[in-house]
Amino acid sequence: MKALEGIKILDFTHVQSGPTCTQLLAWVGADVIKVERPGVGDATRGQLRDVPDVDSLYFTMLNHNKRSIELNTKEETGKEVLIRLIKTCDVLVENFAPGALDRMGFSWERVHEINPRMIMASIKGFGPGVFEDCKVYENVAQCAGGAASTTGMLGDVPLVTGAQIGDSGTGLHLAFGIVTALFHREHSGKGQRVTAAMQDGVLNLCRVKLRDQQRLAHGPLTEYSQYGEDIPFGEAAPRAGNDSGGGQPGRILKCKGGEDDPDSYTYFITQAAVWKNVCDVIGKPEWKEDENYATPKARLPRLNEVFDAIEEWTMTKTKFEVMEICNPLNIPVGPILSMKELAEDQSLRDTGTVVEVDHPTRGKYVSVGNPVKLSDSPSEVKRSPLLGEHTDEILSEVLNYTEEEIKEIHASGAVGE
Predict the structure, then answer these.
(1) pLDDT band at residue 258, thresholds of 50, 70 and 90?
(2) Within 10 Å of residue 409's Cβ, how many Cβ atoms?
(3) From CA 231, how far away is CA 283, in angstroms rounded?
(4) Are the CB atoms for 145 and 199 separated by under 8 Å?
(5) Among residues 331, 355, 380, which one ends one of the domains?
(6) Pick the catalytic residue: 42, 55, 167, 212?
């Protein structure tokens, strides 16, 4: 049995943050009904198209396992259908601009009145406060949540990360909130409001930097490179380049590969417990007993020298050879893998983390699968829906409209052709 089998999700989301959330729920068995504007649909259907006149990868990779219904919620018959959907579904998910759903006449109070068991989940840019009415996109969230100010090289411009921690990260948080609210409803019988702000989600993922902000009050951050370079710390947690965010110093180091592999690097951590193994591997056995290198505290002011010596060794090996040599010795290392390497990785395909999906208009494409594996609840990845593909199916099977009523709904203009 699929984990969320029997749960119906009314999906009013678009672009990335909301669809990430509802796709996760669909992957584990929820029936996700995506409501789209007739003839238009989710804006990402047409964004960043690589193949003319078909749904973009931006859309297909965020809307697996869903059903699509075209519905004009501004038209009276469309509103009647929407009310029926609210009465029938368990969860309503939306990521409209602040106040948009209220202006449609479907505030939380109204939705809860229609269906007291309904869980209404929303993603917004900011929580309550001076910025709560502001629109937010991925990179804005990364900047407002503390990621950009702590990413990049010391003294350089702040950087955003390629990981979509604002959009997809907040979608993950909202999915957790929805499942929690569903569990609570089992005991209370009532639905509740679930909200996730993008700024909050990014800050949650940046918690180690908030940790370092407080540590600054008690002295320099000794695991940061600037400590060994005698560069003073300011009042805020600084950008730390590729320094490890944990208690074990680590950096990205060059490997053998050159122009053939622009990602020929490895991440190498000098974990204290295996320091002697590190010394043996890089040809510095004398460092095992040298008082300047033998202890973690002694090494902190000399991290540049330590990693320069390690890099001299890693540059004689490919990133995969570094893995093969270091892993049996319990030295934590990891190759910098390109998107091409990840897309072609057989082990990721075997576990369903990377999947190949067949689409009726664009053909086969590669996508991510469910990253969460449940032993007793299978998860499969089905293609995204065409615009309005399931309109009549949803009206009939989910809302129990008769064939004659469906004809009348079409005639009213409430749904697409």
Answers:
(1) low
(2) 22
(3) 30
(4) yes
(5) 331
(6) 167
Measured CA to CA, the distance from residue 240 to residue 221 in angstroms comes to 10
Q: What pLDDT sits at residue 215?
A: 96
Among 7, 28, 23, which residue's Cα sits nearest to residue 66? 23
Select from 272, 305, 331 the last residue of a domain. 331
Angle between helices 198-205 and 207-215 (to 10 degrees): 60
Q: What is the pTM of this model?
A: 0.93
- Cβ within 8 Å of residue 26, ≥6 positions away: 9, 32, 64, 65, 66
**What torsion do the CA atoms of 11, 15, 18, 23 make, to the nearest 10 degrees?**
70
- Which has the closest alpha carbon to 57: 69, 68, 47? 47
State mean pLDDT over 383-408: 97
Task: Give me the residue label for tokens 């990364």.
Answer: 142
Q: Are 388 and 69 in contact (CB under 8 A)?
A: yes
Q: Is 263 a catalytic residue?
A: no
Residue-wise pLDDT for 202-222, tens only, equals 999 999 999 999 999 999 999
- CATH number of the domain residue 281 falls in: 3.30.1540.10
Domain range holding 118?
Answer: 8-205+343-412
Query: Which residues, other chains included, contact 201 with Cβ-Cβ below 8 Å and sequence gap of 6+?
Result: 141, 145, 165, 166, 169, 170, 172, 173
Q: Please name the helix (run of DSSP H) or strand (run of DSSP E) that holds residue 299, with its range, or none.
A: helix 296-299
Number of structural domains (the chain) is: 2
CA pair distance 281, 189, nearest whole angstrom? 61
Runs of H (alpha helix) within 48-193: 57-60, 76-88, 100-103, 108-114, 138-144, 167-188
Write out the two tokens for 330. 């319990």
Portion of the chain with pLDDT greater than 90, in percent? 93
